[in-house]
Amino acid sequence: MPTLFQSIFYATLLLLVLNSTQTLCHTRGIRPGNSAGKVHLAKNMTRAQFSEQQFMKWVKFVGRLKHSVYKNAKNKLFPSYTLNVAKNPSRGDFTKIQDAIDSLPFINLVRVVIKVHAGVYKEKVNIPPLKSFITMEGAGADKTIVQWGDTAQTPSGPKKQPMGTYNSATFAVNSPYFIARNITFKNTTPVPAPGAIGKQAVAFRISGDTAAFLGCRFLGAQDTLYDHLGRHYYKDCYIEGSVDFIFGNGLSLFEGCHVHAIATSTGALTAQGRSSLLEETGFSFVNCKVTGSGALYLGRAWGPFSRVVFAYTYMDNIITPKGWYNWGDPNREMTVFYGQYKCTGPGAQYAGRVSWSRELTDEEAKPFISLTFIDGSEWLKF
Description:
Elements: H1 4-17, H2 47-62, E1 81-85, H3 97-102, E2 112-116, E3 119-122, E4 125-127, E5 134-138, E6 144-148, E7 155-156, E8 161-162, H4 164-167, E9 171-173, E10 179-181, E11 184-187, E12 204-206, E13 211-214, E14 217-219, E15 225-227, E16 231-235, E17 238-241, E18 243-248, E19 251-255, E20 258-272, E21 282-286, E22 289-300, E23 307-311, E24 314-315, E25 324-325, E26 337-341, E27 358-359, H5 362-365, H6 376-379
Parallel strand pairs: 1-2, 2-5, 3-6, 4-9, 5-10, 6-11, 9-12, 10-13, 11-14, 12-15, 13-16, 14-17, 15-18, 16-19, 17-20, 18-20, 19-21, 20-22, 21-23, 22-24, 22-25, 23-26, 26-27
Antiparallel strand pairs: 7-8
Family: Belongs to the pectinesterase family.
Signal peptide: 1-27
EC number: 3.1.1.11
């Protein structure tokens, strides 16, 4: 058994490598202010020239292998032990996923595989910050389903106050080095009516650094996948929703994923929350597919410096010709970065796109289309 001193030492060590975060609440009514300050142009430089100069500086910056705001990532790949979760008590160590997580040490420093057998698990799951190196492995995304139905307006706590978007997640991960394979995360809340208040309903929230998702499904309507903070990799995943259904301020690469809209009228695929030039965050979709219903924006500028790129991606005819929305704030058109690179399909036509989006050159696209975008060579070793 570890001594009290050892426990305190490991807790302090792990807290140092975790990013200090600030909880964000993503709601339709949020209108971030102009705290970033005014843009000062150099003499004899137009705003368009300034924007181009700043973008190319950023392209070269994120093109480096290591991002300055993240610690060097050292993953642990080989499991020390395996736990089984099954609906039938005779087939597993636990019948609930949360019970398996709760059984782990307060500070977990070894890779643990939790195998979740086939079944629908109706529970709300939370992995705390110090329980790192957890792999959640299902029997197949169509066979192992974790579901719950909270929304931002669901009463919570002794005073029964609305829990907010952040806490509405069916499955929430707050620790680093999380891996999920072949499992479905679902919020059962139906598609809200246009303009409905408080219907944000998160299926999965990832707030830990260096997380990977392989062959998973994320099902919901408004705000399905909260890609909150950290570097994340999604491979061969299916993500379904209606409005802002991939949102947050992570640095994330989506490769070979199928993104499907279920909007009844107008919807939006992304709402990326980058809030300043100093943040190295953004979403990149490579070799993906976008299908569904409704009229879909590729993204809305939740953050004033929002950053999203689609490369080699098929887009169905549901994409609105304009492609992008400025969140009702024309000032963001000078600071966001929205780009396409060699995309295909009827919705990928660049003609009609807003003037403040861009069709990328080879040089501009390069930092976004490989694992170096998320420092993957450091921690993605499957």
